[in-house]
Every structure is written in C-alpha cells, then in structure tokens.
Give the backbone structure.
Amino acid sequence: MPNEQAWTRVQEELAKRTESGTVMWSTNQFLPSIRKNVVGDVIYSAAVNGRMVVVYEYSYTAYDVDGPTEENDVAIEFVDNMGNLQWQWPKLPYRWQLLDAIRYTLCGANDFLKTFLPQGLPSPQSVQGA
Amino acid sequence: MDVFNFIAGLSSVVGLVITVRVWWSVRTIAEGYSRQALLPQFQRRLRGFTKNLKIHEQGKNAAEIRKALVLCRGTLQDLVPHLGRHGKNRALHVMGAIEQVLSLEDNSALWGQSGVIIAEMEGLNNTLVVLTNEMKWRVPNA
C-alpha cells in the first residue's frame, strides 16, 4: 500500500539529489510515443537505485462547473526497459519541484550563472543587504 | 331562494376546483420544462466530474480526487430536488458513498482503497446514467 509520507520524502529527496547532481537525468526520445499528451514531447529518465524512473509533464482535460479546461500535471513512473509503465507514483506536491530541478540541471542553468556572473554568485547576505 | 343559494354555492366550489386544477396543471408543466432545461446541464457536469475522478484516481492524486468528489456531491445536492422518490433515493445513496470516501482523513488510505474507489465510481457512473434516463422519462410525463 502506498504511504503518502514515505513517497513525499522520496520525491523531495529525489529533487535534492537532482539539484546536487547525484541523480543524472536524460531526455528520452522514443518514450513520448507511448504516452498521451506529453508537453513538449520530452520525457526525462534516470536510473535510481537500479530502477528506471521517468518524469514528464502532460496535459489533460479537466471539468469544472463552467465546463472543460486544459490542465497540466506531472507524472512520475517506474518503467521497464521498454518504457512500459510498471507503477505510477502518487501525485504529491514535490513532483513539480522535481520536474523543475530536472529542467534546471539539464538546461545547464547553473553553468550559465557561473559564466554570466564570473565573479561568482552573490551570497544570500549580500543580496539581503542590497 | 334556497335553490339560488345552492346554485351560487355550487358555482363557487366548481370555480375553485377549476382554478386549483388549472394552477396545478400550469405548475406541473412549468416544472417539466424546468427539468428539461436543467437536465443537459446536470448531465454535462456529472459526466465531467466523473471523468475527473477517473483521471485522478488513475493518477493517484488524492487532493484532486477529493475536489472532484466535492463537485459531484454538490451537483447531486442540486439535482435531488428535481428527482422523483426513486431517483432521489439513489442520488442520496451515491451522496452517502461519496461522504464515506471523503471521510477518509489519510490520503494513503484513499490510495490504498483505490479498488474500492474505482468500484464506487463505476457504480456512481451507472447510477448517474440511470438517474439522467429517469429524468428524461419523467419530463414528458410530468
């Protein structure tokens, strides 16, 4: 039985390890063909503790009192070697943070900061004092 | 004089009966048209909210499952006054089932009982189809 607290911690930890570079993600080109409504046709995959994990943003039609609207959400899944779904992780708040961390590291935003600001990143104190 | 009073009294009673009957017929017809106008709205909403439930149940999104259940419950509450006794009982039964699922405080329990929730939702869907069909059936006979 899925445990909400445990999976919240897992997603939080995965986001942290992604930011620190301990978990390396890559984009997978063939996986979007077997998933519906993937935003940007990009699916991120990584091997974590011997398991293949994929993360992607997708859109779906939600219904409200006023009628249908388009919404986006993030899916995190265990998949097999062929990319077939094995188990979908529960939707918890850290899923968005994880996706953001993956995109941040993959696009090299940190390297951009280092090159754009050659004197180094401002410390939190100097930012507060400014 | 007695005959005149009798006829006058009888006329008053007949007039009252006719007035009540006309009022009743107009009211019944108006209710029928009102139901006919409301039916598509309720159908669309309930179908949509049930789709939400299925999507979020598959996606293990407890927060959105609760949100969809609340929307379903609210729509059923609005629907109940427009239903007959049988339809009303079914709607109240579904609302009771929704209350049970909503009373699960732990989201993990909500996921854990996903099989039960699927069954509830399928039951809800079937009931909604029956309810809307009943409404269609009732309007022409109103």
Remarks:
- Strands of chain A lie at 26-28, 43-48, 51-64, 67-79, 85-88.
- Chain A is about 35% helix and 30% strand.
